Amino acid sequence: MSKVKKITYIGQYAEFKGLYDFLSLANSFKESNITFEIFGEDIDIEIPQNVSNKKRFSPDNIDNIFKNIQLLVIPSRCKETFGFLSLEALSHEVPIIVSSSMGSKDMLPDICVFDSKHLISTIMNMVSKNEKIKFAINLKSIEDHSEEIINLYERAISKL
Asked: How much is the pTM?
């Protein structure tokens, strides 16, 4: 975490996506040397001085965008199934932390998942501990996944 000098948000400029939680995070780090950037919409919004509004980017530029992200925060407040943003970031080897509302939390280490009310304290804790986070994603095999699905159907059928 000591090497992280820029934290990024990508998404709609909306409260339910956690944008204002992200901006509060940036505001709490205004005296530090960490900068923040947001990508998402071609509109101007009120942001703290240490935040750059990069607006919308072209899909042609996505590799370049992700190459320059040091830490991506996905602070969604609403329940989301999975979300391609997490996969896109991980495919570009970008470290991410996500809110517990995200389905993608299931494939991340616990330290990378936060309750939406605790974004600031989670990041503050990560910075103060200066721990190295190792991503080791263990996906289920198709056989294990199939067995779980069959068990779900069998339980549902037995209740009929």
From this structure: 0.80
pLDDT at 134 (0 to 100): 66
Burial class (CB in 10 A: 0-12, 13-18, 19+), 72: buried
Cα 45 to Cα 112: distance, rounded to the nearest angstrom: 28
Residue 144: partners with Cβ closer than 8 Å, 6 or more residues away: none
- Residue pair 145/139 in contact (Cβ under 8 Å)? The answer is no
Residue from 126, 92, 101 nearest 112 by CA = 126
How much is the pLDDT for 159? 87
Tell me the angle at which helices 19-28 and 119-129 cross, rounded to the nearest 10 degrees.
Answer: 40
Cβ contacts of 5 within 8 Å, gap of 6 or more: 33, 34, 35, 70
User: Which among 113, 141, 139, 107 has a CA at the least distance from the CA of 126?
Assistant: 113
pLDDT in tens, 33-52: 999 999 999 999 999 999 99
E-assigned strand segments in the chain: 6-10, 35-39, 51-55, 71-74, 96-99, 113-114
Q: Is the pLDDT of residue 130 over 80?
A: no
Tokens standing for residue 3? 């090497």
